[in-house]
Design brief:
There is one protein chain. The chain is α+β, with helices and mostly antiparallel strands and 208 residues long. It is 26% helix and 24% strand. The longest helix has 37 residues, at 5-41.
Length: 208
C-alpha cells in the first residue's frame, strides 16, 4: 500500500535536514581550512591602508621571527633576486613602504626587505630557498589571504584579484613564491567590477 502522505513528508523532511547538516559540516570545514591556511601562510593585522613599515629593531625582529625570516645582514649570499609588488584598493594605489625587514643602522636585514617605496622586494639569502609573499606580508604586519588585504576585501562588497606577470592567479596569494623579476598585483575592487592587469612593471636596467 502507498505510504500515507504525512509519512512521505516526514521522510522528505528528514532527508532535507540531513542534507543541510552535511552542507553545514562541509562549509565549516572549508572555512576552518581557509583560516588555518591563512594563519600558516600570512599572519598580519586586519587594518585599513595605508600600512606603514614596522618601526624599531625589536618590532622588526619580532615580525621577522613570525615570518620565519632570519637576519642575514652582511652574510655571503647564494640568492639575490627581486620581485615587484603593487597594490590598488578601490582605484587608489597603496604604497609599499621602504624599510620593511630592514634597519641598516642596526645591521639588520631579513631575506625579504624593501629599501624604498618603489614596490621592489629584495630577496637575499645565504641559501637558495623558496620565499613567499605571505612571509613578506607577515613581517610587514598586514593580513593577506584569499579574500583580504588588511581590512579590505571580503567578497561581500569588495573582491581581491591577483595577477602575477599579467596572468590571473587564483587561490591564496600568500602561497605565491617570489621569483626574479616577478610583477605581482593585488587589486581590491567593488564586487562585480571587471579588473584587468596593469602594464608590466618597468624594471630599471640595473635589475636585469
Amino acid at each position: 500500500m502507498p505510504a500515507p502522505a504525512a509519512a512521505v513528508k516526514a521522510r522528505l523532511l528528514l532527508v532535507v535536514v540531513a542534507l543541510l547538516a552535511i552542507l553545514g559540516i562541509v562549509s565549516a570545514a572549508v572555512v576552518a581550512h581557509e583560516r588555518a591556511t591563512a594563519v600558516d601562510l600570512s599572519h598580519g593585522a586586519a587594518t585599513e591602508a595605508p600600512w606603514p613599515a614596522p618601526e624599531g629593531l625589536g618590532t622588526k625582529d619580532a615580525r621577522a621571527a613570525l615570518a620565519r625570516l632570519d637576519n642575514v645582514y652582511g652574510q655571503k649570499l647564494a640568492e639575490h633576486i627581486h620581485a615587484h609588488l603593487s597594490i590598488v584598493v578601490d582605484g587608489h594605489p597603496v604604497t609599499v613602504p621602504g624599510q620593511i625587514g630592514l634597519d641598516e643602522a642596526q645591521h639588520f636585514a631579513t631575506s625579504l626587505h624593501t629599501h624604498n617605496t618603489s614596490g621592489i622586494i629584495h630577496v637575499e639569502s645565504p641559501v637558495v630557498h623558496d620565499f613567499t609573499l605571505g612571509q613578506f606580508f607577515t613581517e610587514w604586519d598586514v593580513r593577506l589571504d584569499a579574500r583580504h588585504i588588511g581590512a579590505s576585501g571580503g567578497d561581500l562588497t569588495q573582491t581581491l584579484t591577483v595577477f602575477v606577470d599579467g596572468e590571473r592567479r587564483l587561490g591564496d596569494p600568500s602561497s605565491i613564491v617570489l621569483h626574479d623579476l616577478d610583477s605581482i598585483e593585488l587589486v581590491v575592487a567593488p564586487a562585480g567590477q571587471v579588473v584587468r592587469a596593469e602594464p608590466a612593471f618597468d624594471w630599471p636596467s640595473n635589475y636585469h
